[in-house]
Design goal:
The complex is a heterotrimer. Chain A contains 9 helices and 10 strands. In chain A, α2 runs antiparallel to α3 (about 90-120), α6 crosses α8 (about 360-370) and α7 crosses α9 (about 385-390). Chain A is an alpha+beta fold. Chain B is mainly α. Chain B folds into 2 domains: about 15-70, Helix Hairpins (Orthogonal Bundle); about 75-290, Cytochrome c oxidase, subunit III, four-helix bundle (Four Helix Bundle (Hemerythrin (Met), subunit A)), CATH 1.20.120.80. Chain B has helices at about 15-35, 45-70, 75-115, 120-125, 155-180, 180-215, 220-255, 265-289. Chain C has a two-stranded antiparallel ribbon with strand order 1-2. By secondary structure, chain C is mainly alpha-helical. In chain C, α3 (about 30-60) packs parallel to α5 (about 110-130) and α7 packs parallel to α10. Chain C has 16 helices and 2 strands. Classes of the chains: A alpha+beta, B mainly alpha, C mainly alpha. The complex binds heme-A (2 copies), dinuclear copper ion (CUA) and copper (II) ion.
């Protein structure tokens, strides 16, 4: 508590100094960008160009209108001894300033329309719809993303990296500037190949989220019960970061998106290693675990998947998120708790984890909750118990 | 300040009823909200609020009627009341328009998309495989289970006839009032109220039938939701209209209204016709197509 | 203009009811009710502003220092609901109550008892809404747009918020009905429609918008209520419903709602500019048509708030084009104001300063609106601070500046005292500079990729957020200063007595009655001759 206080007051002072510095030199602006990114896709460039066109049109109109007004404010002021003219209309003027804006708007409408068609109904040079080389399904959860490579059968969750997550807590005492990519890093980034037409299908599990990587030039909502379609083709290898862009509850600010765009060869290797990992996971689902193994794995799963709501202390944040420490469900029959976690609770933030975590992870997390803090159930859940309930 | 000067626009000096109304409204709202949240076991506070609102209405309208009957209103005041009523009815039209709009949207957009039409190809394939987006529906999740529809050509048709007739009887009453035939007015007004009451009776019958035999409930997915919300709000408006008609009838019996000035009567008549028109919309868009 | 003195009605029997309860709780007087609205609005502005100050405090630097994320979302939501429904809308109704009857020569509003009720619903509704802060689970936290399914996860607050919104809706509708009936039915003889001051015109059209969209909003939140408590499926795909349906209904209300908050501002500005330019309003008739045009268009652009939900291409194109069109009538207004100033003989008292700042800063907000309207670019802008910058330019330097300008303009008429011009000018410069420090950097934040509605941000956004917060605190303090100025004016501290005409260039019926305006005006009708009117030049 004390630590936090000293941090914030000292950094407050520091920031005030920075403020002064900026005021004097203006140099601190160098670090932050002032404008929309040009991005790394064809579409992001188009969005940027449109943005600049309208911006300049507005600047020109602004200069003319405000210029006339400011001139008038100096020239036509009473203190200069002018007498007010009494004219009150001019049809010619009215027609001019109706027609000119119409023309300007029509000029803007053309590139906007082409750009929109490019995004929504992309065609190649011959006017044929372009083909998609691969499809990735993106599912928003409170508060993480799940990526399914529909062609490869790979799938994984992507959550805020733990160093950011620890630093962001009130009273953590950690200065965000010391955390690399603060709030913009995840445990498992999305990996995609460069120069590939990728169809992205967006949906959500609980509430509306929105998937946005500024460098790709668009955002699209992920809506529960519906699938939205978007596409991208990234021209440059690199790591690109974005954030959820639709308010989705308390941790809306903490579900970043990271995309690693890699060469096609690297991508093929990555797919291979991912498949290997998936086989390992399958084996884990079919073995009997010792309780110690379950507990240590469980703590890890719990802290990455459950703690956002139920808190690392198991105390939850009642009434929205119940405490698991002392909960009747957690201390009751094992099957009931497995059901709760596997199927979730409809209409609440409690997700059906059965479809997003492996059976061994669920078993581990449950075992952990039943034996951590003051909980005394003493028993352990095995992957096969979870499988049984899942298939019931 | 008694202001019986008919040339001057009548401005009441003090109004004690609005604040009573606000308190009644708040009690109703707080009572309903706490009850719905299970913070209170009974809706007693809500009933208290309702009672306060009814008390307010009696008091308020009573005051207005008294002023009206003692000739404190000149034609300009009358015009204000008329405009007030017209724009109030317009606001009601927009309220229903919201629900009709929702019905239109789910039928023509959402449900086909869920069924895979248009931009819904992936929605259907990925999330709701096998679901066919045809109306009526309780959605791909089959929420509320299988249900049957109300046959539009039994009770609803009868109800349509009843309401249409009641609009006619009310118009006859109005003409009679203009002609100064008071007995006739009262007779036709009673007929109108009775028709409205029978309508409501059948509506309740229909709901019971739907819940008990057709398994059609408020929870039957989007069909049940739109069906009961639209017909339910309409039913509430009929109830309100019938109460207003009853009040008008009583006032008639007490000798209120004049052939050349009877705003209260007209306001209720407009309202009743509005409710009638909404029903026609319901009959066509909810029951038939 | 010696006409004022020759008025034959006697203003001396004031008949103010005695005692607090009778005077304020039971009043039917349009001026008292106007005063109640204005005071209420100021209180809500301070409340909503205080919430904004906590928001800016938390965003002062990266990392969470003061509030938990969920509480932050409650702050954002309640800040917006209170500012929109508690501060800006009631302020305009307050102006309407005070000024419309006077401007058209009517003895009072058309339905005085209902007028009282319109107001007295508000304190109850907002108490209910604010009480959710104290409940289990706190206040609504899904944004003022109340999107399901998120809003349905809220705890006990949903029912309270929905019922509060119903009450606000009832109040607004009754207020609007009253305005329409007053304008259509209560004009003095010879006060033809095209002789009405523009403020009256803009309110007539605003009232129509209110009656058309508030019930739709009420319907939308009712569906939220039944989805949450009674098992309907309006917004649940499993039952055949659609979360996007709510967005359509909400924005069918929401977009006209933002014009409800700007059209009366246009009216106020159109009163102020001619007065201080000493020149008739340029293009009066086209101003009326432009207002009506904006109102009409406002019904067919709503989905520009939803470009990213994945509408079919045709829909996106339609809403993009329709939104473009709004720039045309709005431009007509801006050009007409500038032409009114052109070749006038201007002086720059505080109301005029605010009006000029309004024109420039509102137009900047309008420009960013036009940028947002370009759907493919909105895919980038949407839900970033660029949008936040846009709407604060149109709402704060638009609506709020017009309100503040209007207060300076008419407060001598209301209180009989001239506010201190020196303090007024300080307030103006202080507000105008700080508000730009507050909101201009938010454009950069949005373009650089900062999403809105987040309590914490990555470090690259730190500098501009700090600037914005500093501007915010300064702007907040300036408004405290404003409260002091208003208070001193009401109490007559350091002020002079206002004349009935107040401003040298003022025209319009309100300037032909004494200051302060007597409790009752025009009880026997007002004789209107064209010399009284601000806008009808001799043509
Ligand atoms: C008073 C309130 C107000 C007003 C007047 C406006 C005015 C406009 N708004 Fe704004 N808007 C809001 C309040 C307002 N808005 C709010 C509150 C939101 C966010 C809601 C939320 O999500 O929480 C929003 C969001 C919003 C969006 C959605 C952004 C997003 O979420 O992605 C869009 C998109 O099109 C938009 C567009 C416009 C346009 C085109 C205008 C036009 O009316 C502007 C017209 C004016 C001009 C253009 C300037 C003057 C004209 C000239 C000088 C003539 C010549 C000019 C040209 C030809 C360019 N607004
Ligand atoms: C008319 C409407 C209106 C008005 C007047 C304002 C006024 C202000 N708004 Fe508001 N705002 C909205 C409407 C409005 N806003 C809306 C619709 C949203 C979107 C909400 C959503 O996302 O759902 C929003 C969101 C919003 C955000 C984004 C939050 C987020 O996305 O997380 C921010 C952040 O800076 C903000 C700041 C401010 C500030 C600093 C003011 C200032 O102008 C306020 C100044 C006034 C005062 C400060 C009051 C007077 C003084 C005091 C109370 C004393 C205390 C003073 C000090 C301690 C200095 N607003
Ligand atoms: Cu997910 Cu915001
Ligand atoms: Cu809009």
């Amino acid at each position: 508590m004390n630590k936090q206080k000293s941090y914030s007051s000292s950094s407050l002072k520091k920031l005030l100094w920075v403020a002064l510095g900026v005021l004097v030199s203006g140099s601190a602006f160098a670090k932050s960008s002032l404008n929309m990114t040009q991005g790394v896709t064809e579409f992001s460039k188009i969005a940027y160009d449109l943005h600049m066109i309208v911006l300049w049109i507005c600047v020109v109109i602004g200069v003319l209108v405000f210029g006339a007004m400011i001139y008038s404010m100096f020239a036509h002021r009473k203190s200069k001894g002018v007498t007010a003219a009494q004219f009150s209309h001019s049809t010619t003027a009215e027609i001019i300033w109706t027609v000119i804006p119409i023309v300007i708007l029509i000029i803007i409408a053309f590139p906007s329309t082409t750009a929109l068609i490019k995004m929504e109904a992309p065609t190649d040079a011959d006017g044929k719809s372009i083909t998609m080389d691969m499809t990735i399904k993106v599912t928003g959860f409170q508060w993480k993303w799940k990526y399914d490579y529909l062609d490869e059968g790979i799938s994984f969750l992507s959550t805020l990296k733990s160093d950011s997550n620890i630093a962001r807590q009130i009273g953590s005492g950690i200065n965000p500037t010391t955390v690399e990519n603060y709030l913009l890093d995840v445990d498992h980034p999305l990996v995609i190949p460069v120069d590939t037409n990728i169809r992205i299908l967006l949906t959500a599990n609980d509430v509306i989220h929105s998937w946005w990587v500024p460098e790709f030039g668009w955002k699209r909502d992920a809506i529960p019960g519906f699938v939205n379609e978007a596409w991208t083709n990234v021209k440059k290898v690199g790591t690109y970061r974005g954030q959820c862009a639709e308010l989705c509850g308390k941790d809306h600010g903490f579900m970043p998106i990271v995309v690693n765009v890699v060469s096609k060869a690297d991508y093929a290797n990555w797919v291979k290693s991912q498949k290997g990992e998936q086989e390992v996971a399958e084996v884990k689902n079919n073995t009997q675990w010792s309780k110690a193994e379950l507990m240590s794995k469980g703590e890890e799963v719990y802290n990455s998947q459950c703690a956002t709501c139920h808190q690392a202390t198991g105390k939850g944040m009642p009434p929205a998120f119940p405490a698991l420490d002392g909960s009747a469900v957690v201390n009751g029959p094992l099957d009931e708790q497995i059901k709760t976690v596997v199927f979730g609770r409809a209409g609440t933030a409690m997700t059906a984890f059965g479809s997003i975590l492996s059976e061994s992870d669920i078993a581990a997390a449950i075992t952990y909750t039943r034996n951590a803090w003051g909980n005394t159930a003493k028993d352990a859940a095995q992957p096969k118990d979870v499988k049984k309930i899942k298939n019931s | 300040m008694s202001n019986t000067n008919n040339n001057q626009y009548y401005v009441p000096q003090l109004a004690k009823w609005p604040i009573v109304g606000s308190i009644g409204m708040t009690l109703t709202a707080v009572g309903a909200a706490t009850y719905m949240n299970n913070q209170l076991d009974s809706p007693i506070v809500m009933y208290l609020g309702f009672a306060t609102l009814i008390f307010m209405m009696f008091g308020w309208f009573g005051e207005v009627i008294k002023e009206s009957e003692s000739n404190m209103y000149n034609p300009q005041v009358d015009a204000s009341f008329r405009m007030g009523m017209v724009w109030f009815i317009f606001s009601e039209v927009m309220f229903f328009a919201g629900f009709f709009g929702a019905l239109w949207y789910v039928r023509n957009m959402t449900v086909p998309w869920l069924g895979g039409e248009g931009t819904g190809v992936f929605t259907n394939a990925e999330l709701w495989p096998g679901y066919e987006g045809v109306w009526p529906t309780n959605g791909p999740g089959n929420i509320g289970g299988k249900f049957e529809l109300v046959d539009p050509f039994h009770l609803p048709l009868i109800n349509t006839v009843l309401l249409m007739t009641s609009s006619i009887t009310l118009t006859i009453a109005h003409h009679a009032l203009v002609d100064g035939a008071r007995k006739k007015v009262i007779g036709w007004l009673i007929a109108t109220v009775v028709l409205g009451a029978i309508f409501l009776f059948f509506q309740v019958e229909e709901y019971i039938e739907a819940y008990q035999h057709l398994d059609l409930t408020l929870k039957s997915g989007i069909y049940g939701s739109t069906f009961f919300m639209l017909t339910g709000f309409h039913g509430m408006h009929v109830t309100l209209g019938a109460i207003m008609l009853t009040v008008i009838t009583v006032r008639m019996i007490r000798g209120h209204f004049k052939p050349e000035s009877h705003f209260g009567f007209e306001a209720v008549a407009w309202y009743w016709h509005f409710v009638d028109v909404v029903w026609l919309g319901l009959f066509i868009f909810v029951y038939i197509i | 203009m010696s006409h004022a003195d020759t008025h034959s009605h006697d203003y001396d029997h004031d008949h103010k009811p005695k005692g607090f309860v009778k005077r304020w709780l039971m009043t039917t007087n349009h001026k008292d009710i106007g005063t109640l609205y204005l005071i209420f609005s100021l209180a809500m502005f301070i409340f909503g502003g205080a919430l904004a100050m906590i928001i800016r405090l938390e965003l002062f630097q990266p990392g969470l220092q003061f509030v938990q994320p969920d509480f932050f979302n409650q702050l954002t939501t309640m800040h917006a609901l209170i500012m929109v429904f508690g501060a800006v809308m009631p302020a305009f109704v307050g102006f309407a109550n005070w000024m419309i009857p006077i401007m058209i020569g009517a003895p009072d509003m058309a339905l005085p008892r209902m007028n009282n009720w319109s107001f007295w619903i508000l304190p109850f509704a907002f108490t209910m809404l604010a009480s959710t802060f104290l409940m289990d689970g706190g206040a609504p936290a899904a944004g003022w747009t109340l999107y399901p399914p998120l809003v349905l996860q809220g705890g006990h607050n949903l029912a309270f918020a929905v019922f509060a919104i119903h009450m606000l809706g009832i109040s607004s509708i009754m207020g609007a009905i009253n305005v329409i009936a007053t304008i259509m039915n209560m004009r003095a003889p010879n006060m033809g429609y095209l002789k009405m001051p523009l403020f009256v015109w803009t309110w007539l059209i605003t009232a129509f918008l209110l009656i058309a969209v508030m019930p739709v909003f009420a319907g939308a939140v009712t569906m939220l209520l039944t989805d949450h408590y009674f098992g309907t499926s309006f917004f649940d795909a499993a039952g055949g419903g659609d979360p996007v349906l709510f967005q359509h209904i909400f924005w069918f209300f929401g977009h006209p709602e933002v014009y409800i908050m700007i059209l009366p501002s246009f009216g106020i500005i159109s009163e102020i500019i001619p007065t201080f330019a000493r020149k008739p309003l340029f293009g009066y008739v086209s101003m009326v048509y432009a207002t009506a045009g904006i109102a009409f268009l406002s019904f067919i652009v709503w989905a520009h708030h939803m470009f990213s939900v994945g509408m079919p291409l045709g829909g996106e194109l339609f809403f993009m084009y329709a939104t473009f069109l709004i720039s045309i009538p709005t431009g007509v207004k801006v050009f007409n104001w500038v032409s009114t100033m052109w070749k006038g003989a201007m002086t720059f008292e505080t109301p005029m300063l605010f009006a000029i700042a309004f024109i420039i800063l509102f137009t900047i907000g309008g420009f960013s609106g036009l940028m947002l309207a370009i759907a493919p670019a909105d895919f980038q802008y949407h839900d970033t601070y660029f949008v936040v910058a846009h709407f604060h330019y149109v709402l704060v330097t638009g609506a709020v500046f017009a309100i503040v300008g209007g207060v300076y303009y008419w407060i001598p008429k209301w209180t009989g005292n001239m506010y201190s011009e020196r303090l007024g000018k300080i307030h103006f410069w202080w507000s105008t500079i700080s508000v730009n420090v507050l909101f201009f950097p938010q454009h950069f934040l949005g373009l650089a990729g900062m999403p809105r509605r987040i309590p914490d941000y990555s470090t690259q956004f730190a500098e501009f957020n700090m600037w914005s917060s500093i501007g915010g605190f300064a702007f907040g303090l300036a408004q405290i200063f404003f409260c002091i100025i208003v208070w001193r004016t009401i109490k007559g501290k350091g002020t002079t007595k206002a004349t009935s005409r107040v401003w040298e260039g003022a025209k319009g019926l309100e300037w032909f009655i004494p200051s302060p305006a007597p409790h009752h005006t025009f009880q026997d009708g007002a004789p209107v001759n064209d010399g009284h009117l601000a806008h009808v030049s001799s043509h």
